[in-house]
Design a protein that fits this description.
alpha+beta; Immunoglobulin-like; 2 domains; four-stranded antiparallel sheet; 1 helix; Ig-like domain-containing protein; transmembrane helix
Length: 167
């Protein structure tokens, strides 16, 4: 028996390696021009699609923001007695969907409850209305202030005049 015909087994016994055949080098053919053009257009289309999706998500996911708020009395009480006056806060937003949390402060009463107003997407102006009832004979000038708590704190106010001459 020859040495290379011996059978070996068990751990630590090396396995003889077989020689690997030499493969001929493949001739590299240049890619046709139309394949390069298709590849370039595909890459540009993918990039454009990613940009569009990114802008869409950025628009949809950015939160509601308050740009400004003003308070006014569109129809003052004048010289009328026992009247309800509308105090209107006009809130300008960035047009995003969200919730405005706010409360009214009146100079003749404790702070009101915190209220909410739903804002729809694309809605840039929101009206918050306080109905204030005056009664009796006399003259007074009070203050109404809207306190927006969310999405960002902001306040705006105005004076409300009431004059009821003697009956």
């Amino acid at each position: 028996m020859r040495a290379h015909d011996q059978m070996r087994f068990g751990p630590g016994v090396p396995v003889p390696t077989a020689a690997t055949p030499d493969w001929p080098a493949a001739a590299k053919r240049p890619r046709p021009w139309w394949r390069r053009l298709v590849s370039l257009l595909s890459s540009l289309l993918t990039l454009a699609l990613l940009v569009v999706v990114g802008l869409y998500l950025w628009q949809r996911l950015s939160p509601l923001a308050i740009e400004s708020a003003t308070v006014a009395v569109p129809r003052p009480a004048g010289n009328r007695c026992d009247v309800t006056v509308d105090v209107v806060a006009t809130v300008h937003t960035n047009g995003k969907r969200g919730v405005i949390r706010y409360q009214w402060f009146r100079s003749d009463a404790p702070p009101g409850a915190i209220l909410t107003e739903q804002v729809g997407r694309g809605q840039r102006t929101v009206l918050l209305i306080l109905k204030w009832t005056f009664s009796g004979v006399g003259t007074t000038t009070e203050t109404a202030t809207v306190n927006i708590v969310e999405p960002a704190p902001i306040q705006a106010g105005t004076r409300v005049a009431y004059r009821c001459p003697r009956g």
